[in-house]
Write a structure and sequence with these properties.
By secondary structure, the protein is of the alpha/beta class. Helices cover 28% and strands 29% of the residues. It has a 7-stranded mixed sheet with strand order 3-2-1-4-5-7-6, sandwiched between helices. It starts with 9 loop residues before the first helix and ends with a strand.
Length: 192
């Protein structure tokens, strides 16, 4: 188990820093969509979706999509998210898949998007390499995390090198703090 600042609960999934990270992602996605003349994503796969908050943030910030596919290895957060999202967004197609993102097979119609805001909590044992070429990808990770020896990157340059893409539309970082845990959130948006 990873000792994160945000508790592993529904409330923890809405922590201040995680909310800011998702708003930042949505803002940059809209810029990338505008630059690429993408009116909406047909499918959005959200890897390590946890409680499915990314769909809410995309709906609230008007990042248009047809179908959101939340992927997580833990069935309980997926169950909670399906219940909440079916009430909050009854007219949207939001699907949950309980599976390891490293074994996921994609069924995409372009333009589509793969999001992973948990790269620092997920072993890259195939999930990144399995993303179909030509798909937009939005990734977030972070610098040091207490108790996590998986994929935290101390620098933006290391984060960038860990996830090579065919083209990069955005690469940047912001400083965040949660309950005294100060860190840098890395983000990269590009095309696989």
């Amino acid at each position: 188990m990873i000792d994160e600042s945000a508790p592993e609960t529904l409330e923890g999934s809405f922590s201040h820093s995680l909310g800011l990270s998702k708003l930042w992602l949505c803002r940059e996605l809209k810029r990338a969509m505008h630059g690429e003349s993408i009116p909406r994503f047909r499918q959005v796969y959200c890897l390590g979706s946890w409680y499915g908050n990314m769909a809410l943030f995309m709906l609230l910030t008007h990042v248009p999509f047809e179908t959101m596919i939340d992927v997580d290895v833990d069935p309980e957060p997926l169950r909670v998210s399906q219940t909440a999202l079916s009430r909050l967004a009854p007219d949207r197609r939001i699907v949950s898949i309980c599976d390891d993102a490293n074994r996921l097979r994609y069924f995409l119609r372009q333009p589509s998007l793969v999001i992973n805001t948990s790269t620092n909590n997920m072993r890259n044992e195939g999930w990144f390499g399995n993303i179909p070429r030509g798909t937009m990808v939005a990734l977030q990770g972070r610098s040091g995390e207490p108790g996590n020896d998986l994929n935290t990157c101390p620098t933006l340059e290391e984060f960038d090198a860990q996830f090579p893409m065919g083209s990069t539309m955005f690469l940047g970082s912001i400083g965040l703090e949660d309950d005294g845990d100060r860190y840098r959130r890395w983000m990269k948006i590009g095309v696989a």
